[in-house]
Amino acid sequence: MAKNIAVIGTGYVGLVSSVGLSDFGNYVTGVDVNPEIVEKLNRGVPTIYELGLEDYLKRNLESGRLTFTTDIDTAIQQAEIVFLAVGTPQSESGEADLSQVEQVVGSIARNLNGFKVVVCKSTVPVGTNRWVKRRLEELSGKSANQPDPAFAVVSNPEFLREGKAVQDFFHPDRLVLGYEAPKAREYMEDVYRVLNLIHVPIVWCGLETAELIKYASNAFLATKITFINQMAVLAEAAGADIHVIARSMGMDGRISPKFLHPGPGYGGSCFPKDTHALVSTGASYGVEMSLVREVIAANRQMKAHVVDRLLKMTGGPGSLQGKVVAVLGLAFKAETDDVRESPAITIVQRLLEEGATVQTHDPEALANFKALFGDTLQYHEHEFDAIKGADVLLIVTEWNEYRNLDLERAKNEMRGNVIMDARNVLEPEKARSLGFNYRGIGR
Ligand code: UDX
Ligand code: UDX
Questions:
Q1: Do domains 4-205 and 207-443 have the same CATH topology?
Q2: Residue 329's pLDDT band (boundaries 50, 70, 90)?
Q3: What is the CATH architecture of 207-443?
Q4: Is residue 72 within 6 Å of ligand 1 at its C-beta?
Q5: Has domain 4-205 been given CATH number 3.30.565.10?
Q6: Which ligand does the CA of 261 lie closest to?
Q7: Could you tell me the sign of the dihedral formed by the alpha carbons of 261, 273, 208, 175, in that order?
Q8: pLDDT at 94 > cutoff 80
């Protein structure tokens, strides 16, 4: 039956999980250290941009099953299940920074007033769940071992994609639940019972297996993207069309057409962090994850390739000096306001170094990008204010509105005629028929 749940951390994962778990009929208290976040959420105002989130947030607040607080102690005391969804950002050394996890573990140890399942949802290096179990035993003086455990630890990595997080929460391809205590399995079956109705497969496994599934999945997806990006560079050189290559590769059931879209390189808060963490994890076990290491290097190279190719179009090194470049798209991908590790950051830095004047547009991410670049750039709410007077048009994020860009109007309002389409959202023939010097990626 329904469970009393505390979700610690209300970032992209924590907030969607709080709302989703309460929609499943559980009683959920979301916890954050930031009082402004808590106040806004209790008013039904989402603190992140996710399609559909606001409706679910409001509905579950009204149902009385969902609330938010900064009082982590009370939330844990009242909970039967505590989800950790705090950030595990990448530290300088490449490892995941677990300081937020450690803080929360301390809070839990102080409030073990009855059997609780501690569920780690943040992506954490292999071995962290076992470390959480040991640390809780040390700090609380209680045991998690059979036959009568004072608590249990469960690894429940999430596979939410930003921009589709609500959809992914309610219709996951699978649930991964790493556990040891049978009682923990019963609790988690109750929490996710609703998903049985739509036959979502559940992978029951050990703690380390569950942790590695997450890294393996993300690193594989990052590898797949990097592969098609490198094939795109070869296709450009060989005069082949990467879209036809990708489409026919995808017809092979073993490959699937997903994640074969060439672009400026992957970004976001996960792939860059998780690939680095996986290489670090390998090193800690004496295993050289050379393939993943190469993916990291190749992805960095892809962002440089976009500007290198643009320079070739405008006349070689130094040819962007004094030029006006309109950058369309700043978020690391469409349908999100998130600019974490966005390729646009590296690309814009390079344009500024080349002496270009940069005029930017993005439907959602302008404010987040401005927080990074301040007044070294221009930020426009309407794409044609960014395009006006530009020598170069550079498309970096695949927002749908750019797919139907009015090229006739762009031709009239630009000063130059160069288009570098790093997401292949435009039709090359149409652009060239209007007299643009157009380049895509791999076409
Ligand atoms: C996080 C991890 O970064 C990612 O690796 C994993 O896949 C999912 O969880 P995200 O939800 O985006 O991703 O984290 P973030 O956006 O950094 O949000 C963390 C939230 O936890 C913030 O709102 C922060 O204020 C809050 N927090 C931090 C706490 O409530 N308690 C703390 O002790 C520390
Ligand atoms: C990813 C995983 O998909 C998700 O399962 C995990 O929980 C978190 O990390 P996310 O980072 O939100 O999700 O975005 P995703 O849609 O996977 O895209 C990641 C990056 O790859 C983006 O920069 C995107 O532009 C890029 N990408 C994706 C491509 O360049 N080509 C593709 O075909 C797909």
A1: yes
A2: very high
A3: 3-Layer(aba) Sandwich (3.40)
A4: no
A5: no
A6: 2
A7: negative
A8: no
pLDDT tens, position by position, 7-38? 999 998 999 999 999 999 999 999 999 999 99
| Residues 377/344, Cβ–Cβ less than 8 Å | no
Above pLDDT 70, what percent of the chain? 100
The protein residue whose alpha carbon is closest to atom 12 in ligand 1 is 12
CA of 155 to the centre of ligand 1 (A): 16
**Which ligand minimizes its atom distance to the CA of 222?**
2
Distance (Å, rounded) from C-alpha 397 to C-alpha 369?
13
Where along the chain do its domains lie?
4-205, 207-443
> Is 270 assigned a catalytic role?
yes
Marked catalytic residue, from 53, 76, 118, 270: 270
